[in-house]
Design brief:
By secondary structure, the protein is α+β, with helices and mostly antiparallel strands. It is built from eleven helices and ten strands. The protein binds flavin-adenine dinucleotide (FAD). Flavin-adenine dinucleotide binds next to strand 1, strand 3 and helix 11.
Length: 388
Amino acid sequence: MSQTLTAIPALTRLAEDEAIFRDSVYEFADREIRPLTREMDDHAKFNPDLIKKLFELGVMSVEVPESYGGAGGTFFHSVLAVESLSRVDPSIGVLVDVQNTLVINAVMKWGSDELKRKYLPKFATNLIGAYCLSEAGSGSDAFALATRATEKGDGFAITGRKLWITNGNEADMFIVFANVNPDAGYRGITAFIVDRGTPGFTVGKKEDKLGIRASSTCELLFEDCVVPKSQILGDVGKGYKVAIETLNEGRIGIGAQMLGLAQGALDHTIKYVKERKQFGKAIGEFQGVQFQLARMAMDVETTRLLVYNSARLRDAGHPFLTEAAICKIHSSEVAERVASMAINLYGGNGFVKEYPVEKLYRDAKIGQIYEGTSNMQLMTIAKDLLGS
Ligand SMILES: Cc1cc2nc3c(=O)[nH]c(=O)nc-3n(C[C@H](O)[C@H](O)[C@H](O)COP(=O)(O)OP(=O)(O)OC[C@H]3O[C@@H](n4cnc5c(N)ncnc54)[C@H](O)[C@@H]3O)c2cc1C
């Protein structure tokens, strides 16, 4: 063997700054978020003081360059933040995920210098963003969106209704996809940034959900809502590219959310099986239980490899589309399976709100739905296999 061969570092070996960042975010989550998790789930609302602390921690602007006041991190750092927060509360995980992997990502990649100057420093202080693509009639078929934008003076007037918008209640800026030329099909889709308070724009009803209840999911209404052309993200008619490219990356963030959730369920279960006694000993001493724990750990480890690999491919500028699809579908199935096994091992206590695992089971379900359902991920994987 040649001595000039360079060793490729193991995927799950973190660089020193990555390890420090991950540990500090997890310590924060354990200390500041864990005591509020049940209350936020019950009331279906974030604690506003907690949101302030997330900004102070730097996790609301992970990739915003230091020159704009952000943390100057990588996409991989965002993934570590989402994982560490979701280990304690996947609702906080999705707040931070949408902010970083969709909203900030889109502004950094597609925003004009003016838009960057306007929004990036605010993401580092108190601005929350939302990403608004889905509608009642267009979910998986996202580019069938019916929201229209018509040229009006020096801007565009947006009319339509968005549905299922994460951070709808907390956000003050919204990336809204609308079609400026329906005859051109998806090539008419354009991404606009709409600020809260713009006349003609209102946030509608908030959904009452099965899981990630603290995270707001809202409808948005646009009625002749005029935004200047300077608020267009990317070019007119290129919104489909903005949507595809950011969602391809955002999917890795959902993988991280599901990974954190599964790790959190495993953490709780390890603690519980050491404490709960039946037949005169801790249930963790039974081999049947140990094998179930081992399978949970296998699932968590394979998920971590897929999530970290996709994120590292993305940061290195390599293709990652299929890897991200595999990572999302696998991680969401694992989250559901591991949370379900956690409930089994908690017995009756797993089924009640006094213990933390029933919430994780409810929270896991969303992973197979948003940012492209599992069937959509399977289509991406199959297309790659068949070269179609
Ligand atoms: C809590 C929550 C938060 C969300 N946050 C956001 C957000 O911030 N921004 C945003 O824009 N959207 C958001 N969404 C919307 C989400 O992305 C969509 O719900 C999702 O893409 C699925 O669309 P749909 O609900 O219309 O389901 P549908 O597209 O109607 O799908 C229903 C079923 O049909 C299957 N299906 C559809 N077409 C095919 C096909 N061709 N082949 C095989 N199977 C198919 C799907 O896989 C699924 O199982 C959120 C949704 C939820 C529930």
